[in-house]
Amino acid sequence: MDHQPFEDWLLEDKSTNREERLALQEHLRGCTACAALSEVNLALRGARMASPAAGFSDRLQVRLAAERKARRIRQGMGFTFLLLGALGILLWVSWPLLAATAQSPSGVISDLLMYLSRLFLNLRAFGQALSVIWNVFPSFIPSYVWVIILFAFSGLGLLWVASLRKFTRIPQGV
């Protein structure tokens, strides 16, 4: 049984013609769900609307402003405690380095320069190894495998675009 037009008529408070009213009455006799919906709709239309007490809007605005101010204060205090805690942990972790720097600044500077030079040399060696692998690796794989890989990625890309078009389609009016 198709409930859709009847539910729309009941919920939208749309004016209906004589044929639609007769069809609705016939449907309500046979469908308990739509009959219950009609009764609830009639009860809600008959209910008296309550109006807020005098000054409600002003009291609400004052309360919302106070809550915003309290939230800003809480967030500021939380950020302050977080910042102080992070600075404390940073100081605690870096204290040995700071103490060593105070005793022998030249030793710390030479250690830092040695560390940076080793880092640079390691990164350079790693780049050269990747370059060799990049130049040698394609010769290990036959050309038909490269074609299969290309088609597989093309198919996955096409599937992705098709799924995006299907799942992001905005329905237009009927």
Which short descriptors sum up this protein?
3 domains, 6 helices, 174 residues, mainly alpha, flat
What does this structure look like?
The protein is mainly α and 174 residues long. It has three domains: 1-47, no CATH class; 68-103; 105-167. The chain is built from six helices and no strands. It has helices at residues 4-12, 18-30, 32-46, 56-103, 105-140, 143-167. Helix 1 (4-12) packs parallel to helix 3 (32-46) and helix 4 (56-103) packs across helix 5 (105-140). The protein is flat, with a radius of gyration of 37 Å.
What's the SSE blueprint?
Elements: H1 4-12, H2 18-30, H3 32-46, H4 56-103, H5 105-140, H6 143-167
For the biggest sheet, the summary is:
none
Helical segment count: 6
Mean pLDDT: 86
Given helix and strand content, the structural type is mainly alpha
What is the element string, with H for helices and E for strands? HHHHHH
> Shape from CA axes?
flat
How much helical structure, as a percent, in the residues? over 70%
Unreliably modeled segments: none
End-to-end CA span: 21 Å
Q: What is the gyration radius calculated from CA atoms? A: 37 Å
Summarize this structure briefly.
The chain is mostly helical.
